[in-house]
């Protein structure tokens, strides 16, 4: 009977999957068919079976023979052929057969339409095109059935069209077509792909009311939906639900579960699931292996990756294109370029058809590793094999230019010679050279200049192939221009690119050239960028600003950054007193810092108060994936240092720069040879402890942000100690107070300072004062005089004085950024001629005079070898300085440099000047006024001659010193007084307070942790009432008292869990035994407790710190578990935290499991715990009792707590482990149990 033969062919398709066997059976059965009808039936069955086997090309051969011989011209044969193509997702071929069917005069049936609709859905055909077949079906009068709607729902699901899927789902009810399990599963899949998980769950709950029970596919679809939304907890709840319903998982469900565990880093669960798959007989497929390889590869577990690849080969699981691309990515990121090349070669030999994704992935790998020429070669090969590159491919290569590591072998054979035969050898050669480090680099200047022209060629090729450049393309090209370091080459490239896109590249070229007219067009470009997503637009701004900044157009870069700020390109990047730069490039960040500091300067000069501190964030902890010690941080640190901006690194966040104002003392430390400790001092009303160091080197190392050295040593040691300070890389300014320093020593100091771009103040300086910051020595007098002279804030007068009573050039400093708390100043410079006693009287007098008749002094400065005119000319260019006051003296000719500047018209602002020493003519012999410089050397150097010369040059010169105040006041109308600032309340001196009956007794002990002074005690600055009212727990109190900061709730809860889990170890341990014996001996509770606590050590509770120390050291060094354990064994050291007297691998400590569960649910990272688990896996292979114990769990997890919270620096973490804080948790917990 024909039906029997047809049945066998169908069964072969379902079970055997062997096309040759099916073909042999088909050909042997065909002669037995008695008519064309029977032959047509057999042909239809053969096509169906071969289609099920996944070989539509073989089915097509049989079909074509049947059509040619006449028995294949049936609706059934055509429909089966369409269905065979549909099973393999070959939509174009299926639609071709459907068209041939109609051309042959055959009327398609419902089955035919169902097949072609199914093919369109699986082949990714546009949904609207698919729906046209459905409308055609209805037009032909055919009634759709459940198969029709299921295929349409599947097409809607693949296209992500939920609304169309809803319409189809509801239309089934309207037409009276029942929904089956496939209908529901397909509809739920469409809903999940659109992310509406609430609706998906609701549809599943409605299934039983329609007599359809959810199956494993239903639950698996929901799990996958939650997983793709990264709602892993919800996905695992579905998994638990399946287990409770005793639904057996299929391979798809296991793959989804493994994918979740890989993404969450739960490698213990991965091992368990793989073992479960083996037990229930579910074999791993390619998807399973791809997921595992990707997960372990991201963890750097290359040994496991190698095992998985080998296991795939042994089990006969064929790798997919994704397998190869994943391995290439893993090996390349690990620097294993030879292995990556071998994988590519293996792929080439596999016979798999590469797609644009694989080629783009491999090109991306090559480009990121600097092999640009090789990447270009592969790009050409893509075109040769008929794969069209997309814009991502081109962008990857363009972005790599300027980063490439092209090398030339020592035998002068270039590593990137295009003539190498075949892509494989070309790639392997480039990779192997990188891996071995063979050869010498090609000259950077030559390479990068040539690369810009290569970019132009690539851009032309994009246009020719119809690939439309996007914003990422533009950004990549601008980045390459920035890296080329050649203004001429970059401008030439942009000029050429204007031929393709004058709008974008015309603006970029105009900005680079500094054309003002380009700003007419630039806002339109920035407005277009505003319509794009933030990552894309910010990348363009970063690239454009980088190019402008690095190629010298810094003002243009600042303008571009401000345009970006106005358009909110960098989210929350700019506020009035904070900057967040962690999403910005180095050039853009530097431009923004400049613009932002100028904005703050305008705030200061508007008379507004600044907050307690201003900050600049470059990235750290929860704020960003960007590490605090990033390139960006180093660039901003260098920039702030170069412009003298008063910012320091925050103590607990090395990615944040802060300027705390004068809320903290400017003195970082004291050096007292032979002594270390602290010196108690009052800062305002608060008593503080200043560190004391025994050597200059130790002080500079402890305070790397302090850059001023104030030397109070006597003349006998001042020169040597000052030279030692100058040689410290962090010190920029040295002030020497001592008199009598030998002139030869002084000359050496100043020569060394000048050659190293440093500054010497003194010797024999009258002191240093910086308005609003600090005062050293006698200058400016008492606090009352500073307030009286308005030296606490900047004014509008630039003051230069040559007279300090000892022949030194004294220029008073009061600059804009003083309000930000600058911790150093430059006051005086020795003229090398005299070391007599300073008094500073004339300058102090002028402070008072200027403050009395104006709004105060703005700025002054001093540089070794500078002249009066140097500073007057500088003041002339400062907008905030409205007039200048000069105080000169007889002797020397420095004042004549100012006369020349006035005559030449280089000074535009009013200058009031007076040269003291006009009474010298009254003396019959030459007189020295106090110091060597104040002595007339002839008529030209007399005070009268200088005053007259200055008057004739245009300066305002009074008739006498007494009238100097009136002369300054004459110009008062040209000054708009600045707003006054609120002065802090200055506490009384202790002696005065004692005299007036208001005594403040100093403390004998200073604590930075707790404070019981005032109305209520406080822990680390948190008042006791706050601790009680806000419900702080024991963990919160520990965080305040032990770590001097308030840790996040998950951290404090973890400490409380540790205390609870370790509170009691039973009566048989050594600590409990000692406590019991001591108590029975009649000792008190404290003595009994102490006797038990003294037994804590490596064998009882004291292994937490050692476990943390060894696990951290091994992980940070990158040791594998094997290397770590075997290394400890060679040293004769037991691995702390591993091993238990009772617990075994199959009966692990429940406390450890509870701690791990909590950490995985709440900690941002568990890298140290995961490493400890890997160590446990290895030790269990040696002995079943070598499990991770509670000490090891707490030690490793506490490391994750410290590192993951973002509140501790690496140095602090090391110190905490070294001190023994972690064992302290065990001591605290154990005390509870021992007392009980």
TrEMBL record:
Keywords: Cytoplasm, Lipid biosynthesis, Lipid metabolism, Nucleotide-binding, Repeat
Chain ranges of the Smr domain: 579-661
Molecular function terms, GO-annotated: ATP citrate synthase activity; nucleotide binding
GO cellular component: cytosol
Location, primary (coarse class): cytoplasm
Residue spans crossing the bilayer: none
EC numbers for this chain: 2.3.3.8
Coiled coil: none
Extent of the PPR repeats: 74-108, 109-144, 145-179, 180-214, 215-249, 250-284, 285-319, 320-354, 355-389
CDD domains associated with the record: CCL_ACL-C
PANTHER family the record matches: ATP-CITRATE SYNTHASE
Protein's name in the database: ATP citrate synthase
